[in-house]
Structures are given as C-alpha cells and as structure tokens.
Amino acid sequence: MKRTIGLLLLVLMLAIASSVSAEVIKIGVFEPMTGPNAAGGEMTVEGIELALELKGEVLGNKVEIIVVDNKSDKVEAANAVSRLIEKDKVVAIIGSYGSSLSMAAGDIVNKAQVPTVGCSPTNPLVTLNNPYYFRVCFIDPFQGTVMANYAVNELGAKTAAVIQDVTQDYSVGLSKYFVDAFRELTGDQGSIVEMSSYNTGDQDFTAQLTNVKNKNPDIVFAPGNYGESALLIRQARELGIDVPFLGGDTWEAPEFLSIGGVAVEGAVFSTHFTAEAPVTEESEIFLAAYREKFGREANAFAALGYDAYMLILDVIEKAGSADSQAIRDGLAETTGFVGATGVITLDVNGDAVKSAVINQVDDGKFIYLTTVEPF
Amino acid sequence: MREKSKTHVTLIILALTILGLFLANRFLDAYQVRIINLSGIYVTLGLSMNLINGMTGMFSLGHAGFMAIGAYTVGILTMPVSMKEMNFFMQPIVPFLAQVEWGFLPALFAAGLIAAFFGVLIGAPVLRLTDDYLAIATLGFAEIIRVVFTNTQSLTNGALGLKGIPNYTNTWWSWGVALITIWFISFLMKGTYGKAFLAIREDEVAARAMGISLFKHKVMSFAFGCFFAGVAGGLMAALLGTIDPNMFRITLTFNILLIVVLGGLGKIGGTVISAVIVTVMMEALRFLDESIDLGFVQLKGIPGMRMVVFSIILIFAVIVREKGLLKRAKGRELTYVKN
C-alpha cells in the first residue's frame, strides 16, 4: 500500500514538474470529452489540435492548449473552467460544445476576467450580459430566421408546421425564431398551422405527425437531434406526408442519413460550414490539413474549434500581448476575421455575425445549396 | 461525564471547521474554494438521502427531482428583475413572479419547504410501496419533475434554463447548511422519531406491532430528507449561477447514492467523509486525463481515465469496507446511536 502511494506521488510530482515551463502561452479548452455530448466535444478538440499544429507559436512564444473534460455535466464544467483559470493560469479559454455547459462557465470567466470563446453554443443566453464571453458561431435566432427566409422565398411556402424537441434549448430557440420570421414574411398570423413538441429519446411521432397531416402545411420545420429527426421524417413519409422537411445544424451527421435512408432525401437544413463549398481561403487550408491529418472530410464543429483558436491567436498577435485583458478588448473589436467557417465579425454581445450555409440531402449525401449572408 | 466529553468533542470539531473555513477563504484560490463549497453541498445531499434510504430504509431514487424543485425555487426567487426579463425572452415569465426578488435565506427556506411539500404530496401515496417498487415510483417522480420543468416555459424558461442567478453560495452558506443538517439529523436520530425510523428500517411488521405509525414516520422522514435536498439544490443553483432541467438527470441521484453507500447506510460521519472524499477525488484525479511526461516516455492523455480509476478505487473501497466497517452483527444495527 505504502509503495503504491509512493508511486502515485512520484507520478503526480512528475506530472506537475512537466507542466511547469517558462514562456508558454496557455489556452484552456473545456469540452465534453465523456458523457452524452462526447462526440461533439471530440470533433471540436480535433479542430483545435489541428489549429495548434498549424500555428503553434505567437509573438515568439510557444502556445500550449490544456484540454479538460467537463463530462457533459454542468457542475463539472464549472469546476473545469475554474481549474483552468486558477491552477493552469490560462490567458484565454475555448469552449464548450453545448450551451448549458458554456453557461455554467459564464459567471466564473466573467468574475476572473478571462476571455472565453465558444465554438458552437448557439443559445443567445450564453454571451448575454457577459463581457468576457464570445463565440464564433451564429445564434439560434439567426438560424431560425434563415430557414424561414428560405422556406418563403425559395420554396414559396405559405403555411408551415413546426415540430420541436422541447427538451433541447436550440430546438426550442430555433422554432421560436422560425415562427416569428415566417409569420412576418408571409404577413399572416395564421401561417403556422401546427405547433407540436416531443422529447429527446422519443421513438414514435405518429400523434404529432397525424396532426400535421390533417393541417396539410406547405413545409414542416422540425429542428432536433439527428436520431429523432431522422426517425420523425421516416414516419412522416410512411404516413404519406410528402412536403419538404427543414431543420438545423444538428442534422449534419452521418447517422442522420443512415437512420433516415431514402426518407430524408430532399431534407434541407442550415449549418455553419460545408466542406463542399469552401467559403474563404482559410477554409481550403483547414480542409486540406484536416484531410491529411484525419483522412476524412471535416465537419462544422472541427471548423468552429479551429476558428476559435485562430481568432484568439490573431487577437494576441494584433494586440502584441497575451494578457487576458488585452485579448478581451481585442476580441470585442473583431471585425472581418477570416476563418474557416466564414468571415467573422463580433457584435456588441460577442456573437458572431456571419453567413449560414444551407445544405440538402441528395442521393444519400449532403450537398451544398446556397449561402445566406447576415442581414 | 461521557456526555460532557462528547459535547466537548463536538465543540472542538465545530471550532476547527469554522477555523478551517476561515483559513480556506483567506488562503485558497477560487478553484479550491469551489471544491470546498461543492463538498459542503454534497454533505447535505448525502445526509438527506441517507436519512431516507439508510436510516428509515426506504429505497428512494427521487433526490434529483427534489433538488430541481429547490434549485428552481432559489433561482426564480433570487434572480434580479432585470435579469428575469433577459432570461425569459421567448415567453415572458408569469406576472406574479416577475417582480419578485428575495434574499438568499428566505429563498433557501422556501426551496426546502416547497421540496418538502412535494415530498409529502408524492410520499403520501407512494410510501405505501416498499423496496424496488418505491424506487421505481420515486424515480418516475423525479423524471416527471424534469419533464414538467422542461415544458413550463413561462415559469422555468424550459429547456433554455436560467442564467444569472446571484452567486450567494460561499463556504459559510454551504458548510453552514451542512453543519445544520448534521446537527439536525443527529438530533432527530437520538430522539424517539429516530428510534422509530430505525425500527421501521429493521422490521416494519415488528415496528407496527410496537405501536409505531408506519405512515406518519415514513412521510416525516421523507419530508425531512426532501427539505434538505431542496435546500442543497438551492445552494447548487446559487453556486453555479445557472440551471437547466437536464442537470437533474438520474445520474445526479446515483452520484448521491454512491456517497451514501460508500459512507455506509445509516451513518452520519461516514456520509460526511465520503461526500468530501468523492468530491475532492473527482477533481484530484484530473491529472490522469492529461498527458503525462515521465521523462523517458510520453503518455498521451485519455479523457475519461480518471473515471475509470475512480471506479476501480470505489470497487476496492466497497470490498474493503464490506469486510471492515459495514460488517455489523444484525442486532447491533439498532445501536446506531451509541448512548
């Protein structure tokens, strides 16, 4: 027993000793590496690690990223961020996949005055009233509006049905803004003919879909997790609903295609990024590097992680200082930063104003339809 | 004489705790203070669950639900009016709560009372069940609470959660509540109610034959447990500053159950120690997730490694404890409070 403890202590000391080295700029990353959101966290970290490989130095100093797992848990997320700030003394933080996890960090980074850049939390509350939280993705209101525009202008829809996953904040947020925008665009308060909800994990959507079928809408807007959404569309097709289905960025997953099969053909969704139509020169660099390192096509989450890291480094370079306060001020003034996911300008809340991509499922693949510029 | 020396020990421990907290606030950084806060909250949670599960012998798995009630009560009651407007941007908050802004103490009390109220409400019909059936019923209740909170957009802000709850929780609050819980449960267990709880745990039929009202005592124990669960939930909300329904999943209940089982069912001291150990260990083991540089060999960090190691330690702890501390003669279990 004594020996084991001794050995453990030795390992611990070595670990501590190895982490102490001079002239390193430390950037903390807190992402769900385990738990229900692990897939998203892992993709994001891949992007960040890739960015580190491409650009591992700034102002002549080495950059180190410290990744801590937040276990897809709010309490752990708060602990992880606190640890990054107090123990690792990071100058800036990247994270996290999942808006609720990001919100748990909000108070801590605000109090400690450490600037934090979120990669994919799309809930408007994340950056609201928090001068130290920024993000490189657009927020739900924008995405919802984009899809409403697409439905009305491109598809010529007059009526729509909305089916939301009531347990997912992004689904609820997207639906709300879709509904608002759709009503405004059609000029008809009654244009949303049906609004129903389900819970994450549901398998049977017959009740909701039967209601939708009776109302006979022009399109159905159904943002939600890829699994539930694919099942939902399949069941809709079986019930004979043959109108277009529209959704959000979460649909961009291979499982959406494999679960949905033929049924999801023609489904349209908005997302942050597409490998098919590189938006900037930076996208091409990123895509090529990603392909080389991982041997497959990059996804939006990796691209957003990459952008978050590159944005922080860009700010450090411009400010000529890796001081937390300087980084915060630099981030707040970001305009026209060229990232892999598009040209990023941060607004007063610290939210990215940038273009959205609309993809469609065609022949078992995601194909690029169009890019929508912010208004 | 023995009673007197016991009081002395209690006073010394209390003084040391206060001194420890004072020093912690003075010299430790925000991260370490956060862990101390969490430990205090988990002590309260562990004890409240132990009262129900360990001391009264009811297998309840509804703790996360009662915590959720407490957390939302504190969140909604203490949140500044302007913050409420920001949070409820999808649907305005119900008018009677819009202008409410309470202090932390009354909000914590309200959290406990509302949780206890729901405890009685659900307990009255459900506590007639025993063992697994009770577990399933309470588990179901916790899930119902979560689903209700997800759907009441104008009351709880639904899936979006609440943000900007004032960070009232500090070490004095978290450990103050923990100490009160320790004191209260010790006090309760020393008296006739405590004896009745233990009698019910040991043998319901015998307890009834002795004239103990099963229903009354079970509901009472359950309500007290729920009260403290609600208060701890409130402390958690004020510590994090943000809550959402998905926080209160069944895994949270299992975390607390783990603390209870590790500390020993029905043991106050054991629960306190295990709550602190479990909370500190989860953070202390984080180095296992990181890359380790041993000089001659570089090991790449595997996320989740700490959970594996933690689980192994747990398995060993339970095996060792099974042989040692938990092994009590059947008859001696009643002498849980040594007089």
- What is the annotated CATH architecture of the largest domain in chain A? 3-Layer(aba) Sandwich
Share of helical residues of chain B = over 70%
Order of strands, widest sheet of chain A: 8-7-9-10-11-15-16
CATH superfamily of the largest domain in chain A: Response regulator
Report, as a whole number of angstroms, the end-to-end distance of chain B.
12 Å
Rounded to the nearest angstrom, the radius of gyration of chain B is 21 Å
The major beta sheet of chain A can be summarized as: 7 strands, mixed
Give the CA-CA distance, first to last residue of chain A: 66 Å
Strand-pairing-aware structural class of chain B: mainly alpha
Which percent band covers the strand fraction of chain B? under 5%
Bulk shape of chain B? globular
List low-pLDDT spans of chain A.
17-22
What is the arithmetic mean of pLDDT of chain A? 88
Descriptive report:
- The complex is a heterodimer of chains A (375) and B (339).
- Chain A has helices at residues 2-19, 38-54, 74-86, 99-112, 140-154, 169-186, 206-215, 226-238, 254-260, 281-294, 300-319, 324-332, and strands at residues 24-31, 57-58, 61-69, 92-94, 116-118, 133-135, 160-165, 192-198, 219-221, 245-247, 268-271, 337-339, 342-346, 352-353, 356-362, 365-372.
- By secondary structure, chain A is of the alpha/beta class.
- Chain A has 2 domains: 22-138 and 279-355, 3-Layer(aba) Sandwich (Rossmann fold); 141-271, 3-Layer(aba) Sandwich (Rossmann fold), CATH 3.40.50.2300.
- In chain A, the strands form 3 sheets. In chain A, strands 8-7-9-10-11-15-16 form a 7-stranded mixed β-sheet, sandwiched between helices. Chain A has a 6-stranded mixed β-sheet with strand order 2-3-1-4-5-6, sandwiched between helices. Chain A has a 3-stranded antiparallel β-sheet with strand order 12-13-14.
- The longest helix of chain A is centred in the last third of the chain and has 20 residues, at 300-319.
- Chain A starts with a helix and ends with a strand.
- Chain B is mainly alpha-helical.
- Chain B has one domain (2-336): Orthogonal Bundle (ABC transporter involved in vitamin B12 uptake, BtuC), CATH 1.10.3470.
- Helices cover 71% and strands 2% of the residues of chain B.
- Chain B is built from 15 helices and 4 strands.
- A two-stranded antiparallel ribbon of chain B has the order 1-2. In chain B, strands 3-4 form a two-stranded antiparallel sheet.
- The interface between A and B is large, with 49 and 48 residues.
